[in-house]
Amino acid sequence: MKYLLGIDIGTSGTKTILFDTDGNVVASSTKEYPLYTPQNGWAEQDPIDWWEATKDTIQEVVTLSEVENEQIVGIGLSGQMHGLVMLDEKGQVIRNAIIWCDQRTARQCEEINRLVGKERHIEIAANPPLTGFMASKILWVRENESENYNRCKHMLLPKDFIRYKLTGIFATEVSDASGTGLLDVRKRCWSDEILEKLSIDKEFLPKVYESQEVTGTVMEEVAALTHLKAGTIVVGGAGDNAAAAVGTGVVSDGKAFVTIGTSGVVFAHTSQINIDPKGRVHTFCAAVPGAWHVMGVTQAAGLSLRWLKDQMCEEIKFQADEKGEDVYEIMTQMANQSPIGAHKLLYLPYLNGERTPHLDPNCRGVFFGISSVHTKKDFIRAVMEGVTYSLKDCLGIILEMGYSVDEMIACGGGGKSRFWRQMLSDNFDCNVQTLTADEGPALGAAILAGVGAGLFSSVEEACNKIIHKKSQQEPIVANTEVYEKYYKAYQGLYRTLKENFKDLAKL
Fold first, then answer.
1. Domains of the chain in sequence order
2. In the annotation, is 160 catalytic?
């Protein structure tokens, strides 16, 4: 029997899962780590925390599974995108990684637009310069931490730092590299033009592979630490959403998924590159060779509900702990007791600025319409509805670009909620499906490892064998009509408050 290891280096923690070749979970382990916010709008993590979590979870999975390590034939990596990891000439971490949701680089984005040209940057990189992307973070470190920048010899994305620790190889792959702002997304290689105009040395960047290609093998010293076999192959892997696409079977035209994790994403596969000239959604290389995907991103999707839980629902958490129940399940039950529209309470989920459709690092979260009638049930529902409206914004742009969506898969923590899936179906006005396997990025990474190890002839073949549908929510017409009225009110709020957000940021 052969097995595949999928490692997902997320924002809240690292999840490592061992799968058999049918996609069944054999053993799983997760370890969490902190997120640091040294200033308002900043977000950092220690890459060593990721590595310690990776080592520990691999070791635990191998031990729990009781599988002989020579039976583990391939490792795939997925993880949070866009983060900047800086290493010195000895491969040592120079500073904390500046991660995807960090918003400190607005001025550097303006500088990139000046140096490259906004339209030209979108033409090459398929996306405008964004505060979350690696390119602007490189410029910020160069301008504000010259000592750290001068020590830097290698610039890596989060999952690729783990690859380096496993294999000793500096490498990345096309899907994750697409989110740096430095890749020629059409040609699937680093853009010499952008690098030259930004004065970034190409030698600092890792070699770019396709997602299923073998990039290296597990080193002897790592094998001793993790119980893996030395020489086990490690493939390119994929950014978290590109890996989730593989793990949900979204690997052909007409297929899409929506995920609600810390952030929220609406993602559609395409065999033909299509770029939004306004840069409202991302076009990236897919984890399928010769294909791309387009996706809209909500910065604070599940994060909004977690924030509400942590700051305003202490008694609900206590109740859940007392009963041994999931706190989010209790919150969902409460939201279901509030009507559509939450008694005319609207929520803008812009806790950390927003990408799609506004590209605005200054906007912030808003509750609008609060009155004495509102209870905690209404606030919970309003948050869930506001996140759903933001995802509807994403889907609307994708459809506007000419994509057709025949299948919509729900995944991520929010996708496990039948109540939230029904809300998505009602707002999207389409069927929303779930799958028998819900391991998303980790499964996608493992599938890519299986292709790299020669167990499958292609990513598509692997998905056809492994991915199966489970359930389906259909839109309720009456609900769709009511939601549409609130959605229009939601859209108007940003337009009204846009200048106020700018003024607030200056204070």
1. 302-434+471-506 (3.30.420.40)
2. no
